[in-house]
Structure formats: C-alpha cells, structure tokens
Amino acid sequence: MKFSTKSRYALRLMIDLTLHNNGDYIALKDISERQNISVKYLEQIVSVLAKSGMLKSVRGPQGGYKLAKAPSNYTAGEVLRITEGSLAPIPCLDGEAVECEHYSQCSTIDFWKGLLDAVNNYVDSVTIADLAEQYKLKGSLDYII
User: Fold this and answer.
1) Which residues contact 13 (CB under 8 A, 6 or more apart)?
2) Where are the domains positioned within the chain?
3) How many CB atoms lie within 10 A of CB 103?
4) Contact of 116 with 81, CB cutoff 8 Å
5) Are 77 and 47 in contact (CB under 8 A)?
6) Which of 80, 70, 76 is nearest to 131 (CA)?
7) pTM confidence score
8) pLDDT at site 144
9) What is the CATH architecture of 5-140?
10) H-only helix segments in the chain
C-alpha cells in the first residue's frame, strides 16, 4: 500500500499548522518554506481540506489558513481518506456494492478485510496532535554541546 505525496504533504501541512498556531492565520508561503513544498501544490491540498471543513481560510494580506478544530480532534485517518479516498487494499472492499463475482467464495477476502481493519484502526488511533508531539520530541533530541 502506497500513499501519494498529496496525503503525505497533507499530514505535514496539518502538523505545521498545529506547531505554528498562535491564533492567527498562517500564509501558505510560510508553510511552503518550512516544509519545502511548492505553494502551488499546497494550494491544491488546502483546497481539498478546506472544502471538507478541516481548515478555515481568509484571503488577503493577513490571510492564510488554520485548523477549524483542535488538533486532537483530527485523526490521521481522516486526513488520509480526504486526500486518498478509501484506504481499502483491494477494489471489492472499496465501496458499498460488492461487484466481484467470486466475493462469496473468495479464499483471501478475510485476509484483506483484516488488513483493512488493521490499517483503519491504526490511522484512526493517531491524532494530528499526536503527530505534532512526536515531531516536537524528535526536535528536542537535537542538542549542541
């Protein structure tokens, strides 16, 4: 299972907004510089996240983006599903209707369901606040003597 740069960058964007939250809106230019992601690509990502209600935005010189809720109220799973769609490893677990003619006798379907459950349980157990805290802890391990 591979995740696109869009979802990986979306998580980094959400963490950046968490770490630099001072109550003001944060310009994409600033996020772009810190994360080394082009503003154009970030615009695509924030568009999707804002439409989903995860971000608030304001236009203009003092404009930018901020989280619509507390970072602890977002899971990595939510961000991944908004940017990737379903996290199902095979098409027959992807939607509501099962189209595979072998589904009822499939010898591997329980394996794929178990994998999907494991992935969903993990990504839904990690919040953006958790990821931001992990990042801060990594940074605090760097010291100069």
Assistant:
1) 31, 35, 37, 42, 45, 46, 49
2) 5-140
3) 11
4) no
5) no
6) 76
7) 0.88
8) 55
9) Orthogonal Bundle (1.10)
10) 5-19, 28-35, 39-51, 76-84, 109-123, 128-140
